[in-house]
Amino acid sequence: QEARKKRIADVCSGNVNVEFPGRTRTFEQIPNRELDHLIVDDTHHIIYCYVPKVTLSRLGNPTLTQRLSLLTCVHNSSLYLTFAKFWRRYGSLSRHLMAVKLQQYTKFLFVRDPFVRLISAFRNKFERPNEDFYRLFGSEILRQYGNASSGLPETAAEAFAAGIKPTFQQFITYLLDPETEREKIFNEHWRQVYRLCHPCQVKYDFIGRLETLETDAKHLLKLLEVDHLVHFPSGARNRTTTSWERDWFAQIPLTMRRELYRLYEPDFELFGYPKPDNVIN
């Protein structure tokens, strides 16, 4: 843990040769709308940064564990309050309360290899029929980058039945297009973790990795002083592994791979993931 925290501190202080938007700003300078993944559980004095495609659902069944797992479902639950919603409830006191809770509560997040997380997001949202993502993103990707200017099926079910779906290369082209974020920021499933969790502004007490979930979760539960209450099941594994990267990127031009790495380089550097030389060289 100390090495992971030091790595974040080094990157945020500028000691590592990587630059990214927001590195030097203060927590007070972060707009409320960018705080919607910092989830507060007042019962257990926890602040958890929810990162899509990094799940805690294998933490077991006891009550506390169910609550921790529910934190990942915050968008479908009213049990928890995100920092983004503080201003609605507390008005002018919201920033002061945020600062107090950031000092007093245990803050943690779990991360994942950035490219593996990206592959997992693509597989989950575009390789199977998903009506919302087809309507919001898939059809647009096909129109913009798949030469499907007209005649696209109206539903994901119809599109998949006809064998029509975005390719991984089209998805990457969408991510690399500067126009993509002109009007709307990246969807949370492929938005960089540094933009979701603000590790340069929030001093996390615990940084877990999906690749070492079993070990890290046990340490987290001990930190939260509930390890005697919660049994963590063995056998949790990262189903989309880094060994897949070469296969997924095999048909992607080298220039695109390198550009994609630059887009996600802050996450690689902040969380100590090695540069994917097998992909970008």
From TrEMBL:
Pfam families: Sulfotransfer_2. GO terms for molecular function: sulfotransferase activity. It is found in: Golgi apparatus membrane. The keyword Transmembrane applies. It is a single-pass type II membrane protein. GO terms for biological process: carbohydrate biosynthetic process; proteoglycan biosynthetic process. GO terms for cellular component: Golgi membrane. The keyword Membrane applies. Its EC number is 2.8.2.-. It is an enzyme of class 2 (transferase). InterPro entries: Carb_sulfotrans_8-10 (IPR018011), P-loop_NTPase (IPR027417), Sulfotransferase (IPR005331). Keywords: Carbohydrate metabolism, Glycoprotein, Golgi apparatus, Membrane, Signal-anchor, Transferase, Transmembrane, Transmembrane helix. Belongs to the sulfotransferase 2 family. PANTHER family: CARBOHYDRATE SULFOTRANSFERASE (PTHR12137), CARBOHYDRATE SULFOTRANSFERASE 12 (PTHR12137:SF4). This is Carbohydrate sulfotransferase.
